Amino acid sequence: MPLFTCCIRYGGIGIQFSSNSITIHVVQVRVHSLIGMSGFLSTGKCIDSDAPLYDLFFVSHHNRQIREVVLVFWKAPSVPLLKVNTDGFVIGNHGACGGLFRDHLGTFLHAFTCNLGSCSIFTAEVHDFIRDMEYAAHNGGRTYVVGYNGCSLGIQVISSYIFRKGNCCADRLASMGHSVDGDVWLLVLPPDLQAEFYSDRCVLPRYRFP
Questions:
Q1: Cβ distance 207 to 70 under 8 Å?
Q2: What is the number of alpha carbons within 13 Å of residue 191 lying toward its C-beta?
Q3: Which InterPro entries match (predicted)?
Q4: Mean pLDDT, to the nearest integer, of 142-155?
Q5: What whole-number percentage of the chain has pLDDT above 70?
Q6: CA 99 to chain centre
Q7: Are the C-beta atoms of 201 and 75 separated by less than 8 Å?
Q8: How far apart are CA 203 and CA 62, in angstroms?
Q9: Is pLDDT of 131 > 80?
Q10: From the centroid of its chain, how far is CA 103?
């Protein structure tokens, strides 16, 4: 009959010793082997500072792919272009959209928010775009927008992409669209938009995390 039984657990796997005599060397070898096997089977990722510990137990490194935090800035257009940031927003099947026009100094020119009723996100984005083109054409301006051929409207269109973090003003206007009726054109900067607007104008960074 054995003198004692010892059970050591690591990572949900148990080692049981049942013998008349157990040396510390036996325990070390068994635990070391188990950690090595567990590390080999693991799909988890490690960071560089963990490398010495992994090397101690001869565990291969599963390097974590760490992407850098991206700084996002709103950029004003070149003279004499105007820039419009737009966004569509759908909650359930209820859509809204909004857009904000600014010049090369980042000056507020015009904005709109619109309640679209029942629609898809695609419809919301397209409706948003049409509003941009109509405003640019009726006001004789050149606008800086995303992916549209406006030659038939007599305007020049340049395409651009921006991360959501750099489109906060348009995002907020689209969100506001759910609480209005129809189209609302704004000639004065809304109070709810001031923090995001002046952050853009002062070229303050926003952070896009991986």
A1: yes
A2: 0
A3: RNase_H-like (IPR053151), RNase_H-like_dom_plant (IPR044730)
A4: 47
A5: 63
A6: 20
A7: no
A8: 39
A9: no
A10: 26
Tokens linked to 183: 């189209």
pLDDT tens across 89-106, in order?
Answer: 888 889 999 989 998 899
The domain locations on the chain are 2-19+67-208
Three-point CA angle 163, 90, 115, nearest 5°: 110
Q: Which two tokens stand for residue 15?
A: 């080692």
Residues contacting residue 105 through CB under 8 Å, at least 6 positions apart: 76
Distance between start and end Cα atoms, the chain: 58
Confidence label for 195 from pLDDT (cuts 50, 70 and 90): very high
Full-model pTM: 0.61
| Rounded-to-integer distance, Cα 103 and Cα 80, Å | 8
CB distance 32 to 8 below 8 Å: no
| Residue 146 pLDDT | 43
CB 162 within 8 A of CB 134: no
State residue 110's pLDDT score: 87
Average pLDDT, the chain: 75
Task: Quote the distance between the C-alpha of residue 205 and its chain's center.
Answer: 14
